[in-house]
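R.M. (postdoc): so does anyone remember the format we settled on? I'll just put the structure tokens first.
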């Protein structure tokens, strides 16, 4: 049960954190400045999160050679590396 929750949090952490930030900022800005400014703030944060996701993700899903691995590492974007061992 706990491991399935951990996997869920790891897979959707950007979405969960983004929803929490949007909710908190939306409520705070709505209370202080009003509904129109709150809508602008929520839209800005949502756009920033989408741009962050699009710019920080890689297109390479499988690396089959050493050259592809080197090109993926030198691309300047974050890389998630998963290794499989049969020992």
């Amino acid at each position: 049960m706990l491991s399935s929750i951990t996997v869920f949090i790891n897979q959707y952490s950007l979405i969960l954190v983004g929803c929490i930030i949007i909710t908190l900022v939306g409520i705070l800005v709505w209370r202080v400045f009003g509904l129109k400014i709150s809508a602008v703030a929520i839209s800005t944060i949502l756009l920033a999160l989408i741009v962050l996701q699009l710019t920080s993700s890689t297109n390479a899903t499988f690396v089959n050679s050493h050259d592809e691995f080197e090109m993926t590492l030198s691309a300047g974007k974050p890389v998630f590396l998963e290794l499989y061992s049969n020992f």
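R.M.: ...and that's the designed sequence above, right after the tokens. Also worth knowing: The chain has a mean pLDDT of 81. The longest helix spans residues 35-56.
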